[in-house]
Design goal:
The protein is an all-alpha fold. The protein has two domains: about 190 residues, MFS general substrate transporter like domains (Growth Hormone, Chain: A), CATH 1.20.1250; about 180 residues, Growth Hormone, Chain: A (Up-down Bundle). It is about 80% helix and about 0% strand. It is globular.
């Protein structure tokens, strides 16, 4: 269907636009005249922007809808990346920081609605396909790295690259916003409200009641008091910590731990991403057959064993097997958790926003904390701390079990609240 493929491209472009400039951080560091430590601290500004926005994104989507939110995010991204380009071109750390903060906010305003729409498409299709969207993101991230490599090989400045990539990606994203949000929960509710009543209506028809003003903000606050939503957030925290730490430290861990060349470290990370991407495409059948809980537990076990093997293996080939197991285990936790948070379309926006805020916390805290451990015990052994989060995810895996379908009366009461 059109909505499904439009969303797939949106996920891929989300990966492209984020990774393409991050892959040239050495050029950014040189342009701004910063040390590696100063650059790392500066990049946290983007994470702060994401955390600032994600707290309110659920209410924003509930109030204005996924389509409007994506239009605003896509437009603001042009401004944010324009400031990033200007900052690197002029060597202004302040201008760059403002751009990074704005892009961090736009990341939350993009991530939440596209995941809500993807979950809605999955519910429409009637089988697990959400991992396909996350696989598209991974493919887009890999393409973004290749784009960055091509610009770097051609000796094109980082500022020029950011402007060119932003304009091209924005043009495609803008064209696909309408079809990508065609099955958004609020649009489906509006369609039901506009549909004429017929004599064939059954007890399965859910009454549609227009939400009162301010209901979206109350729902956003209420989501923070829901134990299931918070526990799903812990699953996302563990998933983001696992996937994000691999992106930051896996290459360094291979290079330092086994005294090999940098290129082999890059191939090791490519192996992780490849395993994760393949399993995201192949794992949907497992979810349909065995259910979310069983798949999440098997994924957690695979990631845990993979991390332990990689961190403790005496030889590189054995560690490489651990990388594959780790990548396979990291593949499905994120889409499974997003699907669980989106079970009830009426509350999908605030619940996804709350759950993904845990991912943001992981992104903000993991790089500096792991960096401190790397200096003390080495990158390979430092990555073993992710095992604790993985065990926690396994302990709360039962929370991703699908919610029972609400009765019409319950749906009507919820809509009024």
């Amino acid at each position: 269907m059109r909505a499904r493929w439009a969303l797939m491209v949106q996920f891929a472009l989300f990966g492209v636009i984020g990774t393409s400039w991050m892959s040239r951080l050495p050029s950014v560091r040189e342009a701004l005249g910063l040390s590696s430590g100063q650059l790392g601290a500066l990049l946290v500004v983007g994470g702060v922007g994401t955390l600032t926005a994600v707290v309110a994104t659920g209410a924003v989507v509930a109030r204005f809808g996924s389509r409007t939110t994506l239009v605003v995010a896509t437009t603001a991204n042009v401004v944010g990346f324009g400031l990033v380009a200007l900052g690197t071109a002029t060597g202004s750390v302040g201008v760059f920081a403002v751009g990074a903060f704005l892009n961090g906010m736009c990341g939350a305003l993009t991530n939440v609605p596209i995941n809500i729409c993807a979950a809605s498409v999955e519910q429409h299709v009637g089988r697990a396909i959400l991992p396909h969207f996350h696989a598209a993101f991974s493919i887009g991230a890999a393409c973004g790295a290749l784009v960055a490599a091509a610009f770097s090989w051609a000796h094109v400045g980082i500022a020029v690259q950011v402007v060119v990539v932003t304009l091209v990606v924005t043009a495609v994203r803008a064209l696909l916003i309408a079809p990508a949000t065609a099955l958004a929960p609020e649009r489906a509710a509006a369609a039901r409200a506009d549909a004429p009543a017929t004599a064939d209506a059954t007890d399965d028809d859910v009454p549609v009641v227009a939400p009162r003003r301010g209901a979206g903000f109350r729902a956003a606050l209420a989501a923070w008091r829901e134990p299931r939503t918070l526990l799903i957030g812990l699953v996302l925290l563990a998933s983001s910590l696992s996937e994000g730490s691999a992106g930051n430290w896996l290459s360094i861990a291979v290079v330092d731990g086994f005294d090999v060349r940098e290129a082999l470290g890059a191939v090791a990370y490519g192996t992780f991403v490849g395993a994760m991407t393949v399993f995201r495409f192949a794992g949907t059948g497992l979810i349909d057959r065995f259910g979310r809980v069983a798949v999440l537990r098997a994924s957690g076990a695979s990631a845990l064993v993979g991390l332990l093997v990689f961190g403790l293996a005496p030889t590189l080939p054995l560690a490489w097997a651990g990388i594959v197991l780790w990548g396979c285990g990291a593949a499905l936790a994120n889409p499974v958790a997003i699907a669980a948070a989106s079970d009830d379309p009426a509350h999908a926006a605030p619940r996804v926003a709350v759950a993904t805020s845990f991912s943001t916390v992981a992104m903000l805290t993991a790089p500096p904390l792991l960096g401190l451990l790397v200096d003390g015990v080495g990158a390979r052994h430092a990555l073993l701390v992710i095992c604790a989060a993985t065990v926690l995810s396994l302990a709360v895996a039962g929370q991703v079990r699908p919610l029972p379908r609400p009765t019409p009366a319950a749906a009507a009461v919820r809509a009024r609240g």
